[in-house]
Amino acid sequence: MISITSRARFRQRVIRYSEKHGVTAASIRHRVSRNAIYEWKAKYDGSWKSLRDGSHRPHSHPNEHTAEENALIERYYRYNKEDKLMLWDKLRANGYKRCYKSLLRAIARLKLNEAPEKRKGCKPKAYQRAEYPGQKVQIDVKHVPGYCVANGQKYYQYTAVDECTRYSFREMYDEHSTYSSLDFLKKLIEYFPFPIREVQTDNGTEWTNALLVKRATHKTLFEDYLEENGIRYHRIRVATPRHNGKVERQHRLDEKRFYG
């Protein structure tokens, strides 16, 4: 049996002969068809390795899964991936004719067992720290624990903290509403020894209507007063209290100091 290497080297000799004496002469001398020589010359790149036969292995198996079977597997796999036998039973009930091992091979080939790629986390933007007093003041409300109140009334501690100096101001109210917020803001502006350029809060309705569908465009008393006094208003992202970290930390300290 002629090896692949010997066959390739023979073709190289035929091509070299044809280059000197012509394709017809090479065909007669080596008993090879002219078409074959032309095919070899088209493949030839100067190396005998380029004349080796390619693989004769078929690109697909005659009994491989059809596109319909693959689609059926993908459809049921999502809800039955933890129990392959149950998946197989459900597939057979819907016309699947393959054996269990064929199903497992199909799952592997379709890469259904592979874990999905993890999404790249969003890199948070660098926080712009306040550089001078009053540049940004964080405000929040803390509910006073019930065990600290003798008359059963609910109380709320309004707190403001200057980001740059940590200078703080507190007031107590029996409700947390836009009216209480307005009153606190007026007292805060009078109390702070420096002008306030920006105020930052969460998205509570005592500050803003931004998250209320029917009243999102209606400004609260708190927002109106900020605008009247030329103070910028910034709301933190929803469910991210860490963005109001200075005043949150102050509330934790107050919890230990006053209510613990």
Q: How helical, in percent, are the residues?
A: 40-55%
Judging by the overall fold, what is the CATH architecture of the largest domain? 2-Layer Sandwich
Specify the CATH homologous superfamily of the largest domain. Ribonuclease H-like superfamily/Ribonuclease H
What's the number of domains?
3
Taking all Cα atoms into account, the compactness measure Rg is 40 Å
Number of helices: 9
**Quick one: overall form?**
elongated
Question: Looking across the biggest beta sheet, what order are the strands in?
Answer: 3-2-1-4-5
Q: Unreliable stretches, pLDDT < 50, 5 or more residues? A: none
Structural class: alpha/beta
SSE succession:
HHHHHHEEEHEHEH
Quaternary status of these chains?
A: single chain
CATH uppermost class of the largest domain: Alpha Beta
Q: Indicate the proportion of strand residues.
A: 5-15%
Q: Main traits of this protein?
A:
260 residues, alpha/beta, Nucleotidyltransferase, domain 5, 3 domains, five-stranded mixed beta sheet, 9 helices, 5 strands, elongated
Please describe what this structure looks like.
The protein has helices spanning 4-21, 23-30, 34-43, 67-80, 84-93, 100-109, 178-191, 221-228, 245-259; strands at residues 137-143, 156-162, 168-173, 198-201, 232-235. By secondary structure, the protein is of the alpha/beta class.
